[in-house]
Amino acid sequence: MDSVQDLYPSRTAGKLPLFHRPDPVIHSQGAARLEGPLSVDELNAFDGQGYLFYPGFFEQAEIELFQSELTRLSRDPAVRESGAVILEPKSREVRSVFAIHRLSPAFDRLSRDPRILGRVQQLLGSAAYIHQSRINYKPGFQGKGFNWHSDFETWHAEDGMPRPRAVSCSISLTENHEFNGPLMVVPGSHKFFVPCVGATPEDNYKRSLQDQQVGVPDEDSLRELIDRGGIVAPKGPPGSLLLFECNLLHASNANLSPTPRSNVFFVYNSIDNTLQQPYAAKRPRPAFLAERSPKALTPLA
Amino acid sequence: MDSVQDLYPSRTAGKLPLFHRPDPVIHSQGAARLEGPLSVDELNAFDGQGYLFYPGFFEQAEIELFQSELTRLSRDPAVRESGAVILEPKSREVRSVFAIHRLSPAFDRLSRDPRILGRVQQLLGSAAYIHQSRINYKPGFQGKGFNWHSDFETWHAEDGMPRPRAVSCSISLTENHEFNGPLMVVPGSHKFFVPCVGATPEDNYKRSLQDQQVGVPDEDSLRELIDRGGIVAPKGPPGSLLLFECNLLHASNANLSPTPRSNVFFVYNSIDNTLQQPYAAKRPRPAFLAERSPKALTPLA
């Protein structure tokens, strides 16, 4: 942790009020801002709402490849034993597999797909690296939800990510609909930082990935931000692409449908925003959750 | 329990397959079938789908009266100590108040409103009495959901209700929308009975009203019935009325919005279908959950 003042204090003993973030949302400047696939309208939407949603962005053949990779990884005993696998609390089914860009050449290529990486670099105003990658598998009937939170709050407090200069990319492998626990976001909430109360327990990630108890925004702040921006659940067919800002509040409900809700998830961090010591935890989390040897991604030719 | 064969066996040690219910859905016959407010189309819809939904059925002034009664009851220490109150597992906030038609003259009158009772009597083909009544208060952020289940399965196994000849009536006091955990139903599932595995623990209701573990349909049966009928979430403004058959599978998700989702709930049982000894439990549940001194309702003039 720096000896200078922490711009994003959290996990404190007493409650601090939410505040406007001092950092910009879009980090490219001047002419460079328009060098990339995103239009001015898209940039403005991302700046104001904190996300961009493209229903049916990937084609059927691509989705099928990702789905078969998901099946392969979730059945691979070596992957299950690698520690990069999180199980459902009750059913012990696979909930998430991490570091998929390392475990699978197909997902490595996907992470460098210029349709994604070009957008990400334009938003970050720099080269990018993968801070975290995973597949989420939310089984039919068994998949639990998770409560409202900002990813940046955790990455800052527990991983030492200095600034909110990272973009998450979620690619759905199954239809996202009203009944299978789609991601919900609070538009505009990324512009505010909500300091959370309570010290980080040791090895908090072992619990927080199943049921987050620390780094949870207080209800008054949530209410204020939802009163401002409402709640939106971007829903769409398999292959839909969601790009969202690392500080955007999001949540999801349980999957009450018979079919799974699966998605591929990449977090792109700016190469100029690499991890320091955690700001509010004793030890950094394992590398499969938070990359500490960053290597700038090169777009696929 | 009768010494004759139980037509709706459940809570058994081994798994029994689901089956077509032997009882009709609409119990009035001949000319009497058309004596009532429900049209032939409505009767057919209820028969086939298992529910009827009327968005915005009650007027604003009526809703406000019910809302103030809800507030009054949930704050009344005598009500909280009566045992007819169920709290949220974590927050200890009021989740449900039972026997509201006894606790409140306004809810007594509502239960006998001819707009509801006329429909119910037409469906049941007889006079009706209140088997159970309650207000559900699903607080913002804190209200948990409940998994798929048939109410009749519980009322038969634990209360001794002989046949599926009861209708539930839910009146929303707040808007039901995508994000506050609206009721979800499986259309057509009421035509099938899903026997559930596992004996009923003693005083099961103390746990099951917070988190049902027994009397839960197996996933294969759920999948089969959802594949047939899909999932529908009747959503609408405050004052919407939902009538649903006692054996219809239903569930709800957690309330992730800041505002509560509240509703008034009456269960009307046929006066010709009064409770016997429980079919699969040692002792009947308390009277606030299952009326054992039935009195036929008289419609308000």
Walk me through what this model shows.
2 copies of one chain form a homodimer. With 301 residues, chain A is an alpha+beta fold. Chain A has a single domain, classed as Jelly Rolls (Sandwich), CATH 2.60.120.620. Chain A is 25% helix and 20% strand. Chain A is built from 9 helices and 12 strands. Chain A has a 7-stranded antiparallel β-sheet with strand order 2-10-7-12-5-4-3. Chains A and B meet through helix 9 of A and helix 9 of B.
Helix count from the secondary structure assignment of chain A? 9
Indicate the CATH class of chain A: Mainly Beta
Can you tell me the number of structural domains of chain A?
1
CATH superfamily of chain A: q2cbj1_9rhob like domain
Q: Would you report the number of β strands of chain A?
A: 12
**Largest interface, counted by CB within 8 Å of the partner chain's CB:** A-B, 22 and 22 residues
Q: What is the CATH-assigned architecture of chain A? A: Sandwich
Shape of chain A: globular
Query: Helix fraction of chain A?
Result: 25-40%
Lateral arrangement of strands in the main beta sheet of chain A:
2-10-7-12-5-4-3
Strand content of chain A: 15-25%
Distance between the amino and carboxyl termini of chain A: 39 Å
The secondary-structure class of chain A comes to alpha+beta
Multimeric organization: homodimer
- Main sheet summary of chain A: 7 strands, antiparallel
Mean pLDDT rating of chain A: 91
Cα radius of gyration of chain A in angstroms: 18 Å
Poorly predicted runs of chain A are none
Return the CATH topology of chain A: Jelly Rolls
| Helix and strand element order of chain A | EHEHHEEHHHEEHEEEHHEEE
